[in-house]
Write a structure and sequence with these properties.
This protein is of the alpha/beta class. It has a single domain, classed as Ribosomal Protein S5, domain 2 (2-Layer Sandwich). It has four helices and nine strands. It is globular.
């Protein structure tokens, strides 16, 4: 099996925006929400392939591009973000043993014609490639679209915090 081709560019920005072309409109939208709350200028392209390959490649590419920002900055972030009636929490830190830990199970649901476990596949690949310990918790929510939006926004906000320098807390004497 050949590796799916990807292209990604990430920059810290005052306002986040994304140009995502994964071939999966639902994932493009979710990546856009992640970029906006992370305050990242993001361009992500994935060559056509199966949905599963595209999701994995997109998560890996984004994680790989974020790893240097995480390493040279705070490397630690957390957030609690709403998406309509849904509320999600994300916390992350750089870790030599990266992983995704979550209480969310969408294996039986579909959003935009896709199985929503594509979100967990994307986040898993992102965490492994970025070298982070990523925890995602659904605090409240019943509508799967709103839940996914809250999760991606929460992960974005935590990433945005982790990719920026830690403010100097020393007091001037």
């Amino acid at each position: 099996m050949s590796e799916t081709q990807t292209g990604v560019r990430v920059q810290l920005a005052h306002e986040g925006e994304a140009n995502a072309a994964t071939g999966l409109p639902v994932l493009d939208h979710l990546v856009g929400q992640l970029a906006r709350t992370a305050r990242l200028k993001l361009s992500l392209e994935v060559a056509p392939g199966s949905a599963d390959e595209a999701v994995g490649a997109a998560g890996r590419a984004l994680g790989t591009s974020l790893a240097p920002l995480l390493a040279q900055n705070a490397g630690l972030g957390w957030s609690l973000v709403p998406g309509d009636e849904a509320l999600a929490l994300a916390a992350l830190e750089r870790d030599p043993e990266p992983r995704l830990v979550t209480n969310v199970d969408f294996s039986d649901q579909r959003v935009g014609g896709l199985a929503t476990d594509v979100a967990s596949r994307f986040l898993q690949e992102l965490a492994l490639a970025a070298g982070i310990n990523l925890h995602v918790r659904l605090v409240e929510g019943t509508d799967s679209q709103h839940v996914l939006a809250a999760i991606f926004k929460a992960v974005g906000a935590a990433l945005g915090q982790a990719c920026r320098p830690v403010p100097d807390s020393r007091e001037d004497s």
